[in-house]
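User: Show me a protein chain along with its predicted structure.
Assistant: Here is one chain, sequence first, then structure tokens.
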Amino acid sequence: MHILYLHGLGSNGQSSTAANLASKPDVSVSAPTYQPECFRSSIDVLCAAIRRQRPDVVAGTSMGGYYALKLQEMFDVPTVAVNPCFDPVAHLRKYLRAPAINHDTGEPIVFTLDMIEAFETLERVPPRSDRTVLIGLKDDVIHPDGQMNFCVDYGWEYKTVDWGHRVEDVDLLLREVFSTRTP
């Protein structure tokens, strides 16, 4: 199985989740490095990756979860979103006051209002058997109540896990990836 893994804000394609997924048997992983804070350039890079690689599943964490869900809208690909940033316009506004930090470089990620307002809203589509949303009950970055409320409001199914914001059990994630893929 080929997984396109999408990292979150301040991370890169060599994240520990991507590396841990790639270490599993019968799995190949591509994990592009892109700039999640820049919607248009990111969506262009990720659309090109989908067209070129034709992954079996797209999985993403945080902002990567948002992009995974956008790609599912565009390409009808099975998707697993972990602690997704469902509403980047609302969530990223806090970084106008105090910038996010790039975990690799330690440098600030500077946002402008135009950058934030470029993000597209996720479509209200019915529940799908090839979409899994995992919400970490200990997430201290995107509050789990907000994530669950979003899913309820959109009529989307979700599963909770006893994680923080990051993937804490790659085997569980991989089970979800395998179960999300349509036969």
